[in-house]
């Protein structure tokens, strides 16, 4: 008896059913998030860091984490690829990879937005 959820069963499916589109969704969304977070962390945030510290306000921990840890966003596309190739889920493995990529995008967007706005709120409270 064959297991319909095995990798071999997925390989016997037509190419459109193997989940390449879902892999593209997961990798593109997490990769785009990594690119944007790296660009913001490398170019934008250090320029504003001087302005924030000139007011004598300590940066929140989330902003400091964004400044020093933006490179960690590049783990998300790797995790998506690992999920697609070796993760649990059988036939649903591509779906889980796409969901992981979209969740990485949403989480990265939330961290970036809150990391950039928290210092502005603190400066507004001081002024």
Automatic annotation (TrEMBL):
Keywords: Membrane, Transmembrane, Transmembrane helix. The chain crosses the membrane at residues 20-45, 65-85, 97-118. It comes from the Bacteria. This is Type II secretory pathway component PulF. It comes from Stenotrophomonas rhizophila.
